[in-house]
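F.,

This is the one I mentioned.
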């Protein structure tokens, strides 16, 4: 089972490298719980739509992943995404550690961890450097991420 779960996680990131959101979402259970510092917690269709939005808007995107590990119920991976942040035109290199809970051959929880201050310095420049640590900017990043997702879902 741990081999099958490693294959599942690898399949998810191979699809991500191709910007194939549908193949990524196919690795998730219908009741998926996703979380990261930018979007917070997303459930079900919202998590899938986040990947659909991000892959459809990706510019100058590359992804590497390694350290895929899994047992019967969980897994982890390290991944690095490099892309052009569309709102500012700045290049971001986001270094992420992912944790997974796996049930019945599908990912039912996916938690991405990264340094939001580091991300904000790259994506936003000086404002991110000066305020990226603050709850005010963190809340603004979270609100903008969710607003972007809602706008994507309406179209």
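My design for it:
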């Amino acid at each position: 089972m741990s081999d099958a779960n490693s294959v599942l996680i690898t399949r998810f990131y191979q699809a991500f490298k191709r910007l194939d959101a549908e193949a990524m979402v196919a690795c998730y259970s219908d009741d998926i719980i996703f979380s990261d510092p930018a979007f917070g917690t997303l459930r079900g269709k919202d998590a899938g739509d986040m990947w659909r939005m991000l892959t459809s808007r990706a510019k100058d995107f590359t992804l590497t992943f390694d350290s895929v590990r899994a047992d019967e119920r969980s897994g982890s991976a390290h991944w690095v995404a490099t892309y052009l942040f569309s709102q500012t035109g700045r290049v971001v290199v986001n270094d992420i550690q992912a944790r997974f809970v796996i049930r019945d051959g599908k990912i039912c929880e996916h938690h991405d961890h990264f340094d939001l201050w580091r991300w904000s310095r790259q994506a936003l420049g000086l404002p991110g450097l000066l305020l990226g640590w603050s709850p005010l900017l963190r809340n603004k990043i979270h609100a903008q991420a969710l607003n972007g997702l809602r706008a994507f879902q309406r179209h």
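The domain at 2-115 is CATH 3.10.450.50 (Nuclear Transport Factor 2; Chain: A,).

Talk soon.
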